Amino acid sequence: MAVDPNKLKVILVTDCGSTTTKAILIEYKNGEYRQTTRGEAPTTVEKPFEDVTKGVLNAVREVEELSGRKILKGDDIMTPAEGMNGVDIYMSTSSAGGGLQMMVAGVVKTMTGESAARAALGAGAIVMDVLASNDGRLPHQRIERIRHLRPDMILLSGGIDGGTVTHVAEMAELIGAADPKPRFGTSYMLPVIYAGNKDAREIVTKTLGEKTALLIKDNLRPVLERENLKPARDAIHDVFMEHVMAHAPGYKKLMAMAHEVPIMPTPGAVGLMIQSLAKADDIAAVGVDIGGATTDVFSVFYGLNEKKEREATFNRTVSANLGMSYSISNVLAEAGLENIMRWVPFELDEADLRNRIRNKMIRPTTIPQSLEELQIEQAISREALRLAFKQHKEMAVGLKGVQQERTISDAFEQTGSGDTLINMMDLNILIGSGGVLSHAPRRAQSALMMIDAFEPSGITTMAVDSIFMAPHLGVLSTVNAPAANEVFLKDCLVRLGSSICPSGQGKEGQPCVTVRFTRADGTKVDENIKVGEMKLIPLGVEKVKAQIIPAKQFDIGAGKGKEMEVTLEGGTVGVIIDGRGRTLLLPTDKKERIRKLNEWNKALDIYPTK
Amino acid sequence: MAHAYTPGLKVTEKAVIKKDRRLPLKGQVLVKVGDKVTADQVVAKTELPGNVQTLNVAGLLGILPEDVAGHMIKKPGDSVQKDEAVAISKGFFGLFKSTCNSPVTGTIESISPITGQVILREPPLPVQVRAYVDGQVVQENPGEGVVVETFGTFVQGIFGIGGEVHGQIKMAVGDPSKELTPELITPECKGKVVVGGSLIRIAGMKKAAEVGVSAVVVGGINDADLKALLGYDIGVAITGTEEKGFTLMVTEGFGQMNMAKKTFNLLKSKEGLKASVNGATQIRAGVMRPEVIIPLTDGGQADEAQKQQGGMDIGMAIRCIRQPYFGLIGKVSGLPAELQKLESESHARVLEVTFDDGTKAIVPRANVELIED
Q: Closest to A355 (Cβ–Cβ): which among B5, B158, B223?
């Protein structure tokens, strides 16, 4: 249904998260769109309610109370707005009930398997497993896996158009033999989207047509050199609405309430917003949302396409078991105790830390009361973010299996197919979201957590999502992109400032970088940073031209020892100069490490002094 | 403001407890509404489709996939025995024939002319669902299972491992602050639900498995000991399928922690009675906690004058669930409405708690749980 964006002056959006349903009201006032009121309530997809709309109505009631606007008439949302009654449109995103959980299958794990995973992740799904002919498992092990996982849907790909059909047929036979049952309901058939070699469509239909709700779409890798993910992504979204949502508790009612715009998976909506921001400013962006159970990473980076034109590539990964509450123990399991301990700025007994982490896992809604507890939680978050970003870099790669024509100069660059697209020196903005980043008591803490975990190089602007509004704005962008962008920039993004992180290594105490600029009020800054030092230069929300002069073994983006003139952006924190070098190495000696951590924390005014 | 939900673990002497006993797939329900059932009794059964095996007949016989059907001795739907021939090659002039034998007993499900694979399905796997608690069937879900109701004591724990077991309650310590050491786990504990105090270490857990204890209920465990027992680090708290010889239920948390007096005394008062214990824990959407259920035969009135979940009033009993007061139990003595700044500099809604020794503290509301009466 076409929505006229010009008629949208009062907009209500909800996001049904796994634990909390958040409602925001956006209003057009004084010539601009602003987020004006926010309400939240526990999500009610589980027992005893088993009806997601109950939580939605509770959150909306809070918006009513706080805004004074009458929105509900019984259990219905009044549209359109008239004076202080009703809203012009209501829309929603959702990840309640575990979000959209998929399995994907391809022929070669690093080629069509990876393309299928990218399609699913980009559509906002959690990819539970990637099946491929060469995944090292025996056929019966793959069948057991399909039966055990009970995904919401399967995306089957494989083969380029006109290529061999045997392996695709084999994967289809395995899915058919597994006879998988979907998560919700026992009476309907599992949706399977086939987006592989077009020559295998008949065979796939014959094998799966009667056993599953099969949907045929264009091949997502029609030729080796190109991905065509959109048809598969669109199909995933349609199936999500028709099958998964329609069978989840209360969603039929929610779909009726938000009838003008389809409900979108939360991570899909956040991805849209990150892409929209990168596109509007033509910049490379990384966004991260660290939650209780999962950590999502989004990125937009630029590369050259087949025609050697600059082209943006969007990637999203979800680390399904890296989070700060439900999955906190998995951070310990994956990172190891030593890696977590290296960020704790005081002596701590290892057994005690292990027990504290477990206690957070079993009581996930608690908050750090003492400073020590906060420091431990922020230490763990660094490792969760680091691991999630590592996984992202492994997934955000150029197409594998592609023969590239190379010139002599390319050969010196040592880049090629299958290399990560993430180049931290090219990154313009790093955006953090999720409780531990959005609600850190001091914004400088969020900035330092992101710097430590992501290790940005060169000049990077940093920001946090103030109240996790990105999903709401992502779905809004589908009907009114300018309004979504306006609210995103004015109310959602809290700009922290810029980080200056020279890449390279040096001996502690040697010169690292010099930074010179003049603030709008005329005050001059001229800072010389030594290796191993960190410094915070306060700079409010303003842009300044700065001269950055790295020492000869350090690179700030123009090459080793080459100075640059750049635009620095200020914010609630200011400009952080990080003289610790890249790759970031912490002292191995415990006492020295604690001393340095405290020195850096003090330099950036991270924690209160007792 | 929206209603603030405060979690709480149920520790109730008399309650009506309903347990949903459901099959993973549709099947047959063996009891009817009104039937009295015992914990061990099978109330529903079904058969899961058998495991699938693939047999690469084309590859094994060295023939083209499209020719496989012509070499098959068995057709789809036929049953086969393990090692029985399912396909045979024609050979040269009737000589040098190769046969392809079934790796399992089952049925031929399909023959693919594209991949040359034959799919074999093993016999169905029987699944039985037991009543788990002594009680009465109060609801039948045709083809899916039943709801069993019992009247008794219900104690919810915070974390556990292992599945459904039952046995008589046996108190191994006289005080909730005492550690459940190996020497306290005697041969008399075999088949029993053994209640300890503040901690059980790996030596104690090994002894429990050796003796054949049915379940251990204890205040705390150390994470390192749990890892030693399981052999791996738990990633997310989804448990219940571990097979370590006994089921474990922790009532307070990780570390040495006195079991709440109320919980301890309640279990003590039921010593000798039969209890059903489940260690399954799932701390995700649809939270599931471990539990002890002790059916009571003397009837009486359920303590259903339970506080409404979520409401918190002055005088209510609470347990602190995070440092620096972790594990301490007290009563709510103040509920300031305004947000307060914590030592961590976070702003949070707080409460004032008066601990058992009379001292007071300010604690975020998110860091306590109600101890239900």
A: B223
